[in-house]
Amino acid sequence: MTARIGVVTFPGSLDDRDTQRAIRVAGAEPVALWHKDKDLKQVDAVVLCGGFSYGDYLRAGAIARFSPVMESLLEQAKAGLPVLGICNGFQILTEAHLLPGTMLRNNHLHFICRDQKLRVENAGTAWTTDYSAGQEIHIPLKNNDGQYVADAYTLDKLEAEGRVAFRYVDFNPNGSQRDIAGVSNEAGNVVGLMPHPEHAVEPLIGTGRTDGLPFFTSILKKLVNA
Fold first, then answer.
1. InterPro entries given for it (predicted)?
2. Which CATH number is 74's domain given?
3. 87 assigned to active site
4. Is residue 110 annotated as part of the catalytic site, yes or no?
5. Is 90 helix (H, G, I), strand (E, B) or coil?
6. I want to staple 174 with a disulfide (CB 3.0 to 4.6 A). Which of 100, 101, 146, 199 is the partner?
7. Which residue out of 87, 95, 138, 199 is catalytically annotated?
8. Contact between residue 1 and residue 191 where contact means Cβ atoms under 8 Å apart
9. How many domains does the chain have?
């Protein structure tokens, strides 16, 4: 039986179908999850996709954090369920305190959309084992509130514990502190990043490369070998 990976749809989600396709391309079975439904349908992992949940009112991810599905997700993530937050999903994970720090408006105050070079800093999380530490990849980026910030103590702790998962290379597109593009929790089962790996899984779309596919093959291999 193949691994089943849930994709949560909130009001305002944009990339749920793209994420489902990326999961399918990797060889797993995507399972649609609705924000009002507490039942995670016994999935093996969950992706919180990109978009503008609830129109980004209050703050990006602030309302989605209180959706019924998040109650179940919080409990199961703390018990070890692999969770990936992409863009708005990353924002939701910080609002839910599954990941440290928070996201602010881009420092240049404009929406940005570009192919972004990243460096893989941690290849040991549930979602990054098919990468190599230090590997440079190109992943599409599109956000308005993508500036990652945290206090100095938290940043130092993330660095010391190897929990910075990805870092921007050559150009910081949103003013994120220490060029941080993605982080993980202590256990490594929860990862969040601003760029969109689901848009880089086939050569005909996104960057024209498949640099995002290892996110999904990494978790598939972990689940199959568990």
1. Class_I_gatase-like, PRibForGlyAmidine_synth_PurQ
2. 3.40.50.880
3. yes
4. no
5. helix
6. 146
7. 87
8. no
9. 1
